[in-house]
Write a structure and sequence with these properties.
22% helix, 5-stranded antiparallel sheet, elongated, 3-stranded antiparallel sheet, alpha+beta
Length: 209
Amino acid sequence: KPKLPGHEESYNPPKEYVPTEEEKAGWALLPPEERPGYVPQAFDCLRHVPLYGDFIKERFERCLDLYLCPRVRKKRMFIDPKTLVPKLPKPQDLQPFPQTLAMRFSGHTGCVRCISPHPSGQWLASASDDGSVRLWEVATGRCSAKWKLGEPVTSVGWCPNPALQLLAAAVGKRVVLVLSGLGGEEVESAARAACKVPAAAAAGEQQQQ
């Protein structure tokens, strides 16, 4: 780490820092490597300070170093343009749908317009143009229940309240609430009470298969 400048580097240092003529003559007799690098001098003001004596010499040496410095030899690389193109998979491998039939849910005679999975993932409700809503067991593909609504059903969905296992079906210009029969007697009673449907009427609408 270089030494910080002190009083001797000042343009007007104290007299004790300014060498005498005898000291200058003694330094001149020393070998160049033992001579002091800087000899303090005193000037009356900054306008009397001369230009740095070794400015041109140091600038020339710096330019000479840059000119004679060793160059880095860059090797030219030969790259085949074909290797830069990424290898893309085949289009048939990018298909987002399965190619193998694992399970078939058979029963609707018309076009299926909507399906709605149960939040538990165990059941699946479907709506069709044949005027029916069916409840399927996902694991086996078995139709657990079927409701005939008389007109094409365009949409079906589950009630967001888990305490009410209800299905809402869009039939024409009407929305029909269907008791799914899931969750046991307590859940079914709560759903029936929410819909204000008598127990006898609800039992007559549901057909088990």
